Amino acid sequence: MSLRTKFMLALLLTGLAAVAMVGGLAYVGMTKKVDTIRREQAAEHFHSVVTAYLQKYGSWQASPGKQGFDEFMQSGEHPPQLSDGAQDEERRPPREEGRGPQDDGRGPPRGEDGHPPPRGEGAGDRSPPPRGEGDGEGRRPPRRGGEPPFRFILADQDFKVLLGAGVYQHGEALPEAARKDARAVSVNGNVVAYVSPEGVITPSKQELQYLAAMREALWYGVSGAAVLALVLGFLLSRSLGRTLGHLTKAVRAMHGGSLLQRVPVEGKDEVAELAAAFNDMSEKLARSHEELHESHQTILAQAEQMRELSVRDALTKLHNRRHFDEQATTLFSHAVRHKRPLAVVIGDIDYFKKINDQFSHATGDAVLRQVGEILRSHMRLSDLVARYGGEEFVIAFPETELPQAAALCDKLRGIIESFPWHQVHPDLKVTMSMGVYADLAAGTAEAMLQKADALLYRAKETGRNRVCFAA
Ligand SMILES: Nc1nc2c(ncn2[C@@H]2O[C@H](COP(=O)(O)OP(=O)(O)OP(=O)(O)O)[C@@H](O)[C@H]2O)c(=O)[nH]1
What we know:
Protein name: diguanylate cyclase
EC number: 2.7.7.65
Strand order of the largest sheet: 6-7-5-8-9
Structural class: alpha+beta
Shape: rod-shaped
Order of helices and strands: HHHEEHEEHHHEHHEEHEHE
Number of strands: 9
Organism: Duganella radicis
Largest sheet: 5 strands, mixed
Bound molecules: guanosine-5'-triphosphate
Helix content: 40-55%
Number of domains: 2
Number of helices: 11
Keywords: Membrane, Transmembrane, Transmembrane helix
Transmembrane segments: 217-236
């Protein structure tokens, strides 16, 4: 599940839970409150009617009883009611046991449809069916088709039932449970009766309509909250998801090797802070990686330079003896394995000591550099040339038979001899003697070189400035 979906679901559930909790609590609280107010008002009214009635006669026993009470109720002699719907109901005369609900007392008992309802079937009558005399003098006739939601029991000062509200028989003792809620009716300071509510509070039709309207409003609230949560979730998750999407994409790109990434920084919240920090880190990481790479390259270059220096002769820039020995061994192995020709050469500048002595050591160095350059510039890439030490040079010609090697060496000898050395020094003359050997049967590159050295010796012995060779 994507982060966006989770976020929207979380908002949706939170919104629904909040509305359900607040709406539910409000619904239950209001229902209870309405019931309490109705009960209190009805109780207050019934109590005041009973008080007025008993004050008129002094006591129930002295009064005309239920009949008289009903008439008293109808006569309107009792104190005026406060002012609410329940009191309007109370002004209407009570109906007698078994008569069903009545209207305002001027017509016959009617049900909702205007016909007399059957016993115990009054519209909205959810109270227990009447079983004794009197149906509860506090029971109010229905208003617009509703049975009163509760009724009252009237008992004398000894809790003997006078009016049983259809629940208790006349004269029976009021149970302890009912006495608990009983309210005393006093006449001249003496308790002459008790009034006790009876039955479960049953909402009237109008109240049921109120409650239905509340439930409907609650559902509207829940639906509105759901839509709002979805819209908000969509909008918020879009902005949140966009930045996180950029970050995820950037991190993936970094994993792919592109360390320098930038994501848009929108707003000033934590996500924006995260994006800014990411940009900063990415930049630092890329920079340090770049620096690391550069220093790595520098180290590699230096290492290569050092390696190159270690295999090069400082004066002539040709390879040195160590490098030649290593490479010559490799070339020899390759030639043997592939049965390919290989020629090795040793060249030595003639009378070089004299050059040093006669023209200076610096001139000697210049001669060495120039001879090195002549040799290097006439080699193929596959050839190997090196300064072997002092005024000695060595060459390895892979893929070269003795005649070609000897001819090339003689050519080199001629080039050295004919070089305009007078440019270095007017009286300077330079020649080179060479020994060339090209028989792999010598066994090793070193052995071949020794053979070439012997031939060089012969060249020196036989007059110098010449090439001696042998297969
Ligand atoms: N200028 C200079 N001289 C060097 C260098 N290396 C060696 N030499 C000199 O080269 C000279 C070699 O002399 P020898 O070995 O007697 O050989 P040669 O004088 O060439 O005589 P032949 O080889 O018999 O012709 C020595 O005097 C070394 O000091 C160098 O790098 N620079």
